[in-house]
Amino acid sequence: MNAALNTDAVADAKLIALARAEMYSGLSRLLASPEQATAKAWLDHVAIVERLLIADEALSMEGSRIAELFALSQAANLEHSAEDIAALVGASYGALFEVGDRGPPLAIREELTPGANAAAKEEVARFYEHFGYRLGDDYAWRPDHLSVLMEFMHFLSWHESQSADAALIAGLRAAQRDFCQRHLAWWVGDLADNVATRSDAHPLLQASLRATKDFIAVELQSLGD
Description:
mainly alpha; TorD-like; about 0% strand
C-alpha cells in the first residue's frame, strides 16, 4: 500500500513539473521580442494559450489569470486574422520595450530594470553555463531578457519532470527557487503593473504579463515548500 501511494505521489509530482514547464514555455513564447523567430508565437497564439489553459487546470492555481488570457485570445481570434494580431501585438511590444531616444519606455530585460543588480546579466549567464543551457545567436547578447529567463525555468522544470533521481530533483528545484527569487520575482510584478497602465499596451500583452506575474508569485511560494 505504501509503495503504491509513493508511486502515485511520484507520478503526480512529475505531471505537476511537466505542467509547470508548459506554463513557462508558453509564456516565454508570448513574451519574446517580435524581431525573433519565436515572435511567430502570435501567429499561433490560440494553440499556445489553449495549452497554457490545460497546464493551468493541471496545476489548479488559485487566482490564475490564464483563463482571462484565454478569453481575450479567443475574442481576438474572432475579430482579427492571426497575421493582424501578430502585427498589432508586435507594434505594441516594440513601442513599450524596444524604442525610444533614451532607451525603451519599459525594461523587459532584468539588467535595464531600475534597482537591478549590476551583475545580473553575468549571473544568469553563469546559471545557464552550469546547467548546460545554450542560447541561440539571437539572444546570446541579452540572456537576461524575460522570455529567456522564463525559457530557462522551463528547461529546469522539464528536466525535473523527466528525472527519477531524488537528489537531482531536489537540486533542480533548489536552482529553480534561487533563480526565480533572484531573477524573476523581484521585478516582473512591477513590469506587469506598469504595462497595465499603458494605453499603448495591447490587451493581449497586458494579459500575458498579468498571467506571468501571478504564475511567478505562485511558483516562488510552491518552490519554497
